[in-house]
Amino acid sequence: MDKLSAMEVFVRVVESGSFVRAAERLGMSTTAVSRQLADLEAQLGARLLQRTTRRLHLTDAGRGYHARCAQILADVEEADASVRTDTLRPRGVLRLSAPVSFGLKHLTALLPAYLAAYPEVTLDVDMSDRQVDLVEEGFDVALRIAMRLPPTLVARRIAAIHVVPCASPAYLAREGEPARPEDLARHRCLVYTHAAEPGIWTFGDEARVSVDGPLKSNNGDLLRAAALAGEGIICEPSFLLGDDLAAGRLMPLLRGEPTPPLALYAVYPSRRHLSAKVRTFVDFLIGRIGDPPPWDAWMEMAEPRRSGPEGF
């Protein structure tokens, strides 16, 4: 059995939704298509498709295997194209997953420029704060903000992300400014519930502070709006707060107490060959965002303020 040919048969059957239409696309008989798929399932020792009189359904094993096969076939097609042409043009659908707040605040301005530079690429963007399964769900690339990433993923670092505790001038005038992390326990803190440990803010290597307050949410934009209204202290990523910090609408706190370092990464399934559309997209983001990124310009403008005897 030709394994690559059997993979193509499997992928075309899934795409077509029937053995007959797949056979027509491949220029094969329906019997030959059915035999190749049966041989592939026998070699794998797993059923890939459930067949009924009306429809075909992927099994759980079939869904993961289909995503892998589709990528392998795309890589083979791209490798062939690279031999036939001097330059490889990015083309096709690029499926992207990105965090909601980052996507709305920064990707909205960047994506039109990428499409203008690469008109043969179509973007399919899913904005969600959950961590998608790239292979299972068929994403080409995902943007993630993290300290570290699983070793199963290939990743490129795009830019630093700083988590900044801050509050509005009105709140600080009314409630005072914390001089050290443990002071946060007596303040009104606005809690992001989608964090790994909601209600725990970390400083340095060991300082872990339990915080609470009048508002909790899984959306950073909502918490930012509440902080701007003087409702309390937030501890959110700089990409969300940079403009407010630069304009003085929010004031950074505890400047001498570093929060854990994060970074924005582009991640994609581990494989030897990247498609041109993924490679150019990641290069584009790195070139346009830069490191340090524009959302951290406030860090050069703001001087640490002394609010306590130890100079915090």
Would you mind describing this structure in some detail?
- The chain has 11 helices and 14 strands.
- It has helices at 3-16, 19-26, 30-44, 60-84, 100-117, 134-137, 169-175, 220-228, 238-247, 276-289, 298-301, and strands spanning 49-51, 56-58, 92-98, 121-127, 141-146, 153-161, 163-167, 191-192, 200-203, 207-210, 216-217, 234-237, 251-252, 262-269.
- The strands form 5 sheets. A 5-stranded mixed β-sheet has the order 4-3-5-14-6, covered by helices on one side. A 3-stranded antiparallel β-sheet has the order 12-7-13.
- It is elongated and about 80 Å long.
- One of its GO terms (molecular function) is DNA-binding transcription factor activity.
- It comes from Paludibacterium paludis.
